Amino acid sequence: MSLAQLGLEERELVGLFGYPVEHSLSPVMHNTAFSKLELDYLYLPFEVAPDNLKAAVEGVRGLNLRGVNLTIPHKEAVIPYLDQVSQEAELIGAVNTIKNEAGKLTGYNTDGRGFVRSLKEEGFMPQNKNALIIGAGGAARAVAFQLGLEGVDRLYIANRTFKKAEDLVFDIKEGLVMETVQPLPLKQEKLKEIISGVDLLVDTTPIGMYPESEVEPVIDPELIQSNMVVSDLVYNPVETSLLKAAKDRGAKIVSGLGMLVYQGAISFELWTGKKAPVELMVGTIKNKIESE
Ligand code: NAP
């Protein structure tokens, strides 16, 4: 059978470098979107062991891939192998998307932008608002820097390991020249002290992720106010125990599904120059999650 008969002739290749990659929802999300727009692109998952990352990135040039996404554990380690990185990626210190333009590789971070886009789609504009982020890992970093870049007024970062919250606050103060950012220990009495001024609460911890979905939310539901927007980066289940509690308290909720889809949509747009079919991508991911 010829390549043309297989529909593989003149396809642009993109993909995902991770370790592991088998549970990623990105291939089905992107390939469904390419197909809808009749774009001759194919998205493939590549299992790249940490020791092979440099060779794999050289392969992006060598094989003329249009670009790739990066996931755990490659987001930080990839930076030295790229020709340049975007402002967000440099500040966050992590890259989740590479675009290849005639052998020149640029690294972007679409996680934070994807998160903010999901908020804006729900009508929440972060500028001049106060945000409380719970967690200080990789996802919190992307979200915190992007909220800073969007002009939030105050940013609180509460983490179980207080030192990590302090380190992230230090980096934000340096990187964004922002003074109104404060670390907090993840203690309910400490959260109580600041909660009345919070407009946006973001849980960036894995608490509530399938299959351990029936757990107590990371924050005492009594602290959630009806005027808040509450987001959980966990997207499986789509409505976590935190989001259920927030809804019961009359708050507006934003699922982590939005961040997942919009970070992908921004990568899609960087590679193809076409607007991503976001609704289709949301439906594809929801179906996939519900069928598992
Ligand atoms: P990470 O770098 O490992 O950070 C995990 C954070 O959660 C740390 O701050 C950790 O606190 C905290 N944490 C973990 N278990 C906890 C517990 N039982 N109680 C209190 N705090 C706890 O992970 P990550 O890459 O940031 O990812 C975090 C979550 O975001 C994951 O569930 C991931 O699937 C999700 N995520 C979603 C998207 C999306 O598109 N929706 C994108 C990226 C990530 P310590 O510092 O004390 O350990």
Describe this structure in words.
This protein has ten helices and twelve strands. The mean pLDDT is 96. The protein is globular. Helix 8 links the parallel strand 11 and strand 12. The two termini are 33 Å apart. Helices cover 38% and strands 20% of the residues. A six-stranded mixed beta sheet has the order 2-1-3-5-6-4, sandwiched between helices. The protein is of the alpha/beta class. Bound molecules: NADP nicotinamide-adenine-dinucleotide phosphate. The site of NADP nicotinamide-adenine-dinucleotide phosphate has 24 residues, from helix 5 and helix 9.
Per DSSP, what share of the residues sits in E-state strands of 2 or more residues?
Answer: 15-25%
Radius of gyration: 19 Å
Order of helices and strands, N to C?
EHEHEEHEEHEHEHEHEEHEHH
* Fraction of helical residues: 25-40%
Write the layout of secondary structure elements.
Layout: E1 12-18, H1 26-36, E2 41-47, H2 53-62, E3 67-70, E4 84-85, H3 87-92, E5 97-101, E6 104-108, H4 111-121, E7 130-134, H5 138-149, E8 154-159, H6 162-176, E9 181-185, H7 188-194, E10 200-203, E11 229-232, H8 241-248, E12 252-255, H9 256-272, H10 278-291
Parallel strand pairs: 1-2, 1-3, 4-6, 7-8, 7-10, 8-9, 10-11, 11-12
Antiparallel strand pairs: 3-5, 5-6
The chain binds NADP nicotinamide-adenine-dinucleotide phosphate.
Residues 111, 135-140, 159-161, 164, 186, 204-207, 209, 233-235, 256, 259-260, 263 line the site of NADP nicotinamide-adenine-dinucleotide phosphate.
